Amino acid sequence: MRSRALLNVCFLASAFVAATFSPLAMAQPPGGGGRGMMGGGMGGMGGLAGLLRIPEVVEHLKLDDTQKSELKEVQQSMGDEMRKIFEGMRPAGGGDAGGGRQGGGRGGFGGMTDEMRKKMEEFSQKTEDKISEILDPTQFDRLVGLFAQQSPMQAIRHRLIVDKMKSANCPVTGEQETKMKEAEEAAGAKVREMMSGGFNPENMAKMGEIRKESEEKALGVLTDSQKKKFEEIKGEKFEFPRPQFGGGGRGGDRGGERRPN
């Protein structure tokens, strides 16, 4: 029991690092957990799709029963594909993707290969396209805004927001993106160093602080017009539920990105 709990904690930590300090948004952990897209699991870790796992977001978007049912079908139909992708992310030794130390194997979260990254990006886009077909334009636009609020460093480089920034004649330049990546990499290095000596729940608060600092530094390279447009994309401030982390049960499947804000 203790080893299982420790494995869950390690996986949660590695997933937090991957989702927070990488442009790639994770969607669901290996094994799924059975909560589905409409559950209260780790919303932001799955980008737009993950946000729809947060009941408060579903309520805020005013999804009807038909939309909820269709979203569940999308989750079920793509669940197998996602699990296969995560299986490919397991370390070569066959251990769990979140187990062990995260600085090493190319197959773990700390060393995702370009091929795996591409598969995840393709999967994410496919899922988002299906979601856009289910939600009406107003709901989908608001969902994008919520994503920008919860995960700004991921969102600023997301294809949908990149298009919005371009249409407003204030695209992020290559030089700005390089500086953002440098801020992310520096923050990721701090987190990996903190985790190298072992992980404990108290580190989640420290990770949140590092995340906030890195976001301020990364987004600080934007011009005033870019910042204004990005705030417009975010829309009215939404109060996300407090983070819930645990080893199992309703609050424990991958902790829900219900991630610290």
Question: Mind explaining what this structure looks like?
Answer:
The structure is a single chain. The protein is mainly α and 261 residues long. The chain has one domain (2-234). Helices cover 59% and strands 0% of the residues. The protein has helices spanning 2-20, 47-51, 55-61, 65-88, 114-134, 137-150, 152-155, 159-167, 174-196, 202-219, 224-234. The chain starts with a helix and ends in a 27-residue tail after the last helix. Mean pLDDT is 73; it is low at 1-45, 95-110 and 247-261.
In terms of quaternary structure, what is this? Answer: single chain
Number of strands: 0
Q: Mean pLDDT across all residues, rounded?
A: 73
What is the percent of helical residues?
A: 55-70%
Bulk shape: globular
Tally of distinct domains: 1
Distance between the termini: 31 Å
Rg, Å, rounded: 17 Å
Determine the number of helices (DSSP H or I, runs of at least 4 residues): 11
Please identify the structural class as seen in this structure: mainly alpha
Low-confidence stretches: 1-45, 95-110, 247-261
Following the backbone from N to C, one meets helices and strands in this order, namely: HHHHHHHHHHH
Strand content: under 5%
Largest sheet: none
